[in-house]
Specification:
Layout (H helix, E strand, L loop, with lengths): L5 H8 L12 E7 L4 E9 L5 E9 L2 H14 L4 H4 L4 H7 L9 H18 L10 E3 L4 E2 H11 L4 H8 L9 H14 L10 H22 L2 E9 L2 E8 H4 L3 H16 L5 E4 L3
Parallel strand pairs: 7-8
Antiparallel strand pairs: 1-2, 2-3, 4-5, 6-7
Helix pairs in contact: 1-2, 2-5, 4-5, 5-7, 6-8, 9-11
Length: 274
């Protein structure tokens, strides 16, 4: 059984914005009933270019429902251009993290949003011209290249977690690995400048305050920075987080991931009592 965060369960049990927008400006259908996950997203855009309404219908697991529900909540009120910048990781972070085997659900949400925006702008679909790599789940070469590049994926298993590609007969594993090697060979490594310990602590404090605590507080939780020792970030959970049986997942999948992304890639978050 998958271990879900409280926020995933909340959006699964009480999904927001279920249904279809009347006279939508953008429509997207992604996935398929045959592969086990399907999502329809409809959006309404006002005269200022903001998404005034968004609704979804989905067939899938708890993660698929929660990801679609979260996505609609995230994009309402955004301009179309702002919404276009949302990544699958943003959706997962909004939910406090997803099991690695279920991250493809947030990818499906991102793809639906991208296609709904294209529909609104009148951009024709190029799906028919794209090369299918995984016949079992209908995953294209372009989709695989994108998730590998955006999420720094290294293995076929990771690609399967993000797209389902390779999760059926396995005949496409070699082709997937070729794509991984090609993308990684052309990717330019990004080197972060070295930080002094004081700079690192300040950036950790700012990231916790700006990017992490607001999300935790939405569910009645909180986090306190206790100390920074080398690359170890010592924190104490507060409120609902302190009583949550899945707080260790929140710390690793959300807090640690966000600090590694925005501060330093080698940071490790450790919970302490205080």
């Amino acid at each position: 059984m998958w271990e879900y965060t409280d926020k995933v369960m909340e959006h699964f049990l009480h999904p927001r914005n279920v249904g279809e927008v009347e006279n939508p400006d953008g429509v997207a259908n992604v996935g398929s009933m045959a592969c086990g996950d399907a999502l329809k997203l409809t959006i309404k855009v006002d005269d200022q270019g903001r998404i005034a309404d968004a609704k979804f219908k989905t067939f899938g697991c708890a993660s698929a429902i929660a990801s679609a529900s979260a996505l609609t909540e995230m994009i309402k009120g955004m301009t179309v251009d702002e919404a276009a910048k949302i990544t699958n990781q943003d959706i997962a972070d909004f939910l406090g993290g997803l099991p690695k085997e279920k991250i493809h659900c947030s990818v499906m949400g991102r793809e639906a949003l991208e296609k709904a925006i294209a529909s609104y702008k009148g951009i024709p679909s190029t799906e028919s011209a794209e090369k299918i790599v995984c016949e079992c789940f209908g995953v294209t070469e372009t989709e695989i290249e994108r998730v590998v590049r955006e999420n720094n994926l290294k293995t076929v298993e990771e690609v399967t977690n993000y797209t389902k590609a390779g999760g059926g007969c396995g005949n496409c594993h070699e082709a997937i690995m070729d794509i991984i090697n090609r993308v990684r060979a052309t990717a330019k490594p990004v080197e972060k400048p070295k930080l002094t310990n004081l700079q690192k602590i300040r950036m950790i404090e700012e990231t916790i305050e700006r990017e992490i605590r607001p999300s935790l507080r939405q569910d009645g939780g909180d986090l306190e920075l206790v100390d920074v020792v080398g690359n170890k970030v010592l924190v104490a959970t507060r409120g609902a987080c302190a009583a949550c049986a899945l707080s260790h997942l929140t710390l690793k999948d959300f807090v640690q991931a966000k600090l590694r992304e925005l501060v330093w890639p080698e940071l490790e978050v450790e919970e302490v009592s205080k």
